[in-house]
Amino acid sequence: MEKDNRQAEAGRKAQNLLARMTIPEKIGQLIQPFGWKCYEKQEDGSIRLTDEFKEQLRQGAVGSLYGVLRADPWTEVTLATGLSPEQGARAINEIQEYAMQHSRLGIPVLFGEECSHGHMAIGATVFPVPILLGSSWNVELYKEMCRAVAMETRSQGGAVTYSPVLDVVRDPRWGRTEECFGEDPYLIAEFAVAAVEGLQGDNLADENSLLATLKHFAGYGSTEGGRNAQPAHMGLRELHEVDLLPFRKAVEAGARSVMTAYNEIDGIPCTSSPYLLNEVLRQEWGFDGFVITDCGALGMLVYGHNVAASGEEAVKLALESGTDMEMSGEMFSKHLLSAIEQGLLSEETLNKAVLRVLRLKFELGLFDRPTVDPVRAAQVIGSLEHKQLARKMAAEGIVLLKNERQTLPLNKNIGKVAVIGPNANAPYNQLGDYTSPQEDGKIATLLDGVRAALGGERERVLYAPGCRIKEEAREGFATAIDCARQADAVIVAIGGSSARDFGEGTIDLVTGAAVVTDNAQSEMECGEGIDRMTLNLLGSQLELVKELRKLDKPLIVVYINGRPIVEPWIVDHADAIVEAWYPGQEGGHALADILFGVVNPSGKLTVSIPRHVGQLPVYYYKRRTRGKRYLEMDFEAQYPFGYGLSYTSFEYSQLRIEDAGADEEGYAAAVVDVRNSGQMAGQEVVQLYITDHAASVTRPQRLLKGFRKIWLEPGESKQVRFVIGREQLEFVGQQLQRVVEDGDFTIMIGSSSLHNLEVPLRISPEGRLS
């Protein structure tokens, strides 16, 4: 009720303000220029607003700014030219004060920042990328992480973030796979709800709350050939059941901002889709926030999708379809006023969009508390507490794929360990895309983690990079092999990189030292706009591993990467394989915790890893089919969805169906006993899958419909209970309505999508358990 009252009051205030605005001022509220271009940093750390920007503020021509605090090679903001936590807060205060004091109506600016895996500003905590976050299967821990991200961002004045990414991964060759939670819509929806609740909190006006923006709406992870922003080919029923499910659940959880996707679905660009933005989002789901475009998406309506012949037609299409704000602001600033003056667009349509933006500004408390405390920003951003959370989050999402002959965990009394590979000591390679420049020493690499785990005895840890990510260079092989020959175990860190050119130079393959050179080549093979035809290791990485294998030492492969890697030789010949994804700033320590048994691995895959790229797509929720295999091999994944090993063992027993109980909504309850039958305490992800044996539309063989992450001491047993209700049994029918049909189901509970106990369930025509 209190939240409803706040929203109603914000709506009244927005309506009163709207009535006083001119058309140019209204248009200004929908324009979001690039924030890093509006100022120049001075020698004392303060900023000077550009004259052009100050004039825009005086005219009320800027309602929002994107990335004032963002720093990376794309923005060309460096550690030298960027802003520290305290400086950033002071800069936003200065912009806000100028806007409110020098414009006619004193409307505050809405500051939007990127927070895919942490606040993308200098000094902020770099958490693991979303594909690792999903692999943790720990929504409560992720929610805690989102609170930390919100606290850091809001402390500097950022009020809205362009996260979470809710795209469903269909083809992992897509470079943005790392930004997603995985391939399953139910799991993504659970993380979506946690993100909204964690970022936004109970009150948007709170100093630790941040407006969440759901992206990319919609079908962006399902595009043609795994190529970024290409068309998505699917029917409306599948769109609703798979790709839209996480968005719907997030809207129901209270999300108030949505970003449109670059792609089109069946010829209709998402940025100008009245079906998606008005009919589904607003009318069907009751969404009452605002919609923002992705950067440059409006221009694509003219130059790309070519559904508009002019800029005026493009802005008309977008606004009438339900888009409200334009990131970059280029098309709105050039063409929106003329579209209205030409009679192409009504002021009433403009008013609807402006009202949505103003209402959120009031709800965020920007009129009452427009500035922030710079001292608090310096204390909150990159705090020790958040650093520890980043380490715990990374450890929970790292997945143990193989562990023959109990190679892991390593004993800390081991003699010498060789840490080899291009990702063994490359800080930016373990952070992922959408990362800011980092101070020296802030990022703990695998080498750092192993050295720290062994008490800092550097002579016990031998290091050599061996090779690079993409180059065919082999001059480092001899040094790497010599290090490995002296060691009692070999850890080789290989994979990929989403690191853009931060100017850190390259690594000398013989000495392992960082070298600054004008001829350094980018190692980036993943990230936004970096899509691949294959999923194999690049360069000479596989050859290096083969040479190390010849030494007959315990060989542990650590993948640090943003998308699945398909290398059958490594599957067959490595003693242990660890999938670390991009584990963030504390990734090296988290990996060492796993490798030396300080932490028992509990991560589970949220994307299926194929045996061969030709098997794609291999996502687990395949529909029933008579086709069983290709000529060369079957279509089963090398490592299925939900898979991940532990240093202990878990036994499942006594799966049964019980009455759900009068106090619980549901048809039944599925109950299973889980016991830690090993010698080490650890966490297990208990997964519930359901099969519908006959339905009015073709259904997948199995679908995830519940999961719990539980802790068990050795010998301890726990009873895990899942309520089977409408949400677990429903599907989208032929008329695009969510329905539950009577009939026979199979309930499956176990450790992955392929390893389950099974029990039948029958629902009567009256909708009761029978």
Briefly note the CATH topology name of the domain at 398-615: Rossmann fold
What is the CATH architecture assignment of the domain at 398-615? Answer: 3-Layer(aba) Sandwich
* Binned strand content: 15-25%
Our measurement of the CA-to-CA distance between the termini, rounded to an integer number of angstroms, reads 40 Å
**Number of helix segments?**
22
Give the biggest beta sheet.
Answer: 6 strands, parallel
The dominant shape is globular
* Mean pLDDT across residues: 95
- Count of β-strands: 29
Radius of gyration: 26 Å
| Sequence of strands across the biggest β-sheet | 4-5-6-7-8-11
Please identify the structural class as seen in this structure.
alpha/beta
* CATH level 1 class label of the domain at 398-615: Alpha Beta
Query: Could you estimate the helical fraction of the residues in percent?
Result: 25-40%
Poorly predicted runs are: none
Offer a few descriptive terms.
Rossmann fold, signal, Cellulose_Degrad_GH3, 6-stranded mixed beta sheet, single chain, 6-stranded parallel beta sheet, alpha/beta, Immunoglobulin-like, 770 residues
How would you sum up this structure, described in words?
It catalyses: Hydrolysis of terminal, non-reducing beta-D-glucosyl residues with release of beta-D-glucose. Belongs to the glycosyl hydrolase 3 family. This protein has 22 helices and 29 strands. Helix content is 29%, strand content 18%. Strands 4-5-6-7-8-11 form a 6-stranded parallel β-sheet. It starts with a helix and ends in a 7-residue tail after the last strand. It has 770 residues and is an alpha/beta fold. The relative contact order is 0.10.
